[in-house]
Amino acid sequence: MYIFKLKKVIKGLKGIRKAGLTVVLWHLACSFAGAQAPKLGIWFDQPAGQWEQTLPLGNGRLGMTPDGGVDTEHIVLNDITLWSGAEQDANNYNAYTYLPKIRKLLFAGKNVEAQALVDQHFICTGKGSASVPFGCYQVLGDLKIIFDYGGGYRRPVETSTQYKHYSRSLDLQKAVADCSFELNGVHYRREYFCSFADDVNVIRLTADRKGKISCKVTVSRQEKGIVSNDNGVLQMQGRLDNGTDGRGMRYLASVKAIPDGGEITASAKAIEVKGANSVLIFVSAGTDYEGAAFKHVIDSLLNHAAKVPYATQKQAHMDAFRKLFDRATLQIGDSASDKYLLPIGERLAAFQKDPDADKNMAALFFQFGRYLSISSTRVGLLPPNLQGLWANQIQTPWNGDYHLDVNVEMNHWPLDVANLSELELPLADLVERMVSHGEKTAKAYYNARGWVAHVITNPWLFTEPGESASWGVTKSGSGWLCNNLWQYYAFTTDRAYLKKIYPVLKGSAIFYNDMLVKDPATGWLVTSPSSSPENSFYLPNGKTASICMGPTIDNQIIRELFGHVITAAKILDVDQALRDSLAARLKEVPPVARIAPDGRIMEWLKDYKETDPHHRHVSHLYGLYPADLITPEKTPELATAAAKTLEARGDDGPGWSIAYKMLWWARLYKGNHAFKLLKDLLRPTLDTHMNYGAGGGVYPNLFSAGPPFQIDANFGGEAGIAEMLLQSHDGFINLLPALPDSWAVSGKVTGFKARSNFTVDFEWKKGKVINYNVYSPKSRPVRIKVNGRIKNIWSEQRSGSVVTKL
């Protein structure tokens, strides 16, 4: 009986679980089609209707998203290094001369007048992020495979609806996608992966009857792409705009098809295969960002891949990927749950109706985040941008750049706890290279030593303010980046790494130290001018402004950064005078946070009323997360005020904002509220309009929605799940600090990391840890909180470790 017939039977049956029937249906489909529902992955029962339903694949450098089309397979291609634009100097070197006047106006409470001066003189020259020199992360191109099933390439549209038993899936444990269906009595199957071993994209087409694969392969780009044929290899190459002479980044994508049986011919624009038993398609691509010899590298990779047997190639890819992916596991509830048998769209909808029935949805989302991290960045290249490495446009939303007021930082928050610390290093490398640019910006705008970055940056190392005072002058970006750099050390205790990044941390601290001024009203040393990221407030006269002095986030970042520099200098035994200076300054900056009369944490130095009570940014809770300045254990009053702040702000927002709130509630030990936000984060949506307010969710392929697609909420949600299960920022390892009631029944974690280079495995039932293991390279003492009690124990060495029974 065919699956589509059995689906009709479901509607007529009563008293039988639909999920159980779905299991039967899927297994029948599997037995016919040879496919399997991935236990850790997603699957669809139809081709993608839009790009946000495609399956994301990547090897940290190359990416592709196949749509599984029956008549035409459309695969979007990406390269993490493909950017328009170029290095530029957009500093206004006279800006600092206006500092005294701007500060004087702010001292007098004339914020509107101060903001007018900032808009005139304290922004970047040129058009900033709206200009070509700033650049944009761009799609590489479109690979299309047009199929002929016996009726030629031009058939009535309805022919494409005659396929049966369709499925396509992404297996997170293998980093392999597939697609299968029956058409005209023939079972067709495709497999896709971005090879971690051979560094090329691989697509394999097969059929269960010989001679049944006929297709035409093309590659194209919406602009600046020339396609040619070189001895049977399709080559698409071009040069992007750099904003000056048009001679920007060069790229090349080469496509080679190797059929088993049949005939192959090649024209200037296409490769055509007729009557083959199977076809292997390779895509090798790169840019001159990776070096002038990139074309030679592309050819070498393609030629090598073409000589490797497919089975060997696939296994080598999976082995390389799993060296990273298999480090950590998470199970919540019953591992034998049949919910993974549902197509992902149905599963997401069912989760919204009854999240308790699919406890492992959280585990899937957590591992999907880890999968995206491994797939979207590579040591030695660039960190994941606003879309990771997956884009389907020339002009990606917000340039697909690196936003420094939460987004790129959020992209990295789960890496350490998820046992993927080395994937922090591309960001650390980018920040190191930003320093020399940031030194020019610090001098130009603040006449300060050290280095600064504001709200946006790119591979060209932009550090200048943005083009509008309302958001562009926020200067917390460099300090916030230093938190990410510090976290890698906090988790790994890698002294050589600390020595390497110490000049970066030191330079950032010196900048903030130099630009502090004394507020005549309070006597505190504060930043001026500044702003609380992207937010604005009402003045007593009813006017609104963004520019201010000493916003809470600045004060928290300065406190944290100065503390980290002092600690690092002690460990490295350097800069005693600087340590003493920073320690003295810490006594003069505002406190971590102040509580307003309404019980909330104040966002600004003065108790201004925000223009948008539900604003997406809640930057004054930086001290709660990612910093550890506010905790229920050490600062209970501030923790209570933080909760009131979150309650007033509301739960909704763009996807990344929901994920951030989830993290804050986890830090406050409020697991049920954090879980409620996870459920909100997993709301299904197809909406792609640019959104700054409420309405975040996930697309059918689990990409997070701002909307549009922004990958930060994928990583923020992953970090939130981990934070609900393990925390280590407060001087001890805390197991199940924010366990929601929905997950209390049972669960198991292996391979999570805690600060100070501890690895943790543990298991729980009925909300209580029943066994745990803490291990490290050498056995040493560690404090751990288990079932509400803090214990002093010794970690076990990784080899021969023993589980501690409770």
What would you say this structure looks like, in words?
The chain starts with a helix and ends with a strand. It contains 19 helices and 35 strands. Mean pLDDT is 93; it is low at 1-34 and 800-806. It has a 9-stranded antiparallel sheet with strand order 1-6-7-8-9-16-13-12-11. A 7-stranded antiparallel sheet has the order 2-3-4-5-10-15-14. Strands 17, 29, 30, 31, 34 and 35 form a 6-stranded mixed sheet that branches. Helix 10 packs parallel to helix 13, helix 12 (477-492) packs antiparallel against helix 13 and helix 17 (655-667) runs parallel beside helix 19. By secondary structure, it is of the alpha+beta class. The relative contact order is 0.10. It is globular, with a radius of gyration of 27 Å. The longest helix is centred in the middle third of the chain and has 22 residues, at 425-446. Helices cover 32% and strands 22% of the residues. A hairpin with a 4-residue loop joins strand 6 and strand 7 (176-183).
Task: Identify the notable features of this structure and list them briefly.
single chain, 806 residues, alpha+beta, nine-stranded antiparallel β-sheet, seven-stranded antiparallel β-sheet, 19 helices, 35 strands, disordered N terminus
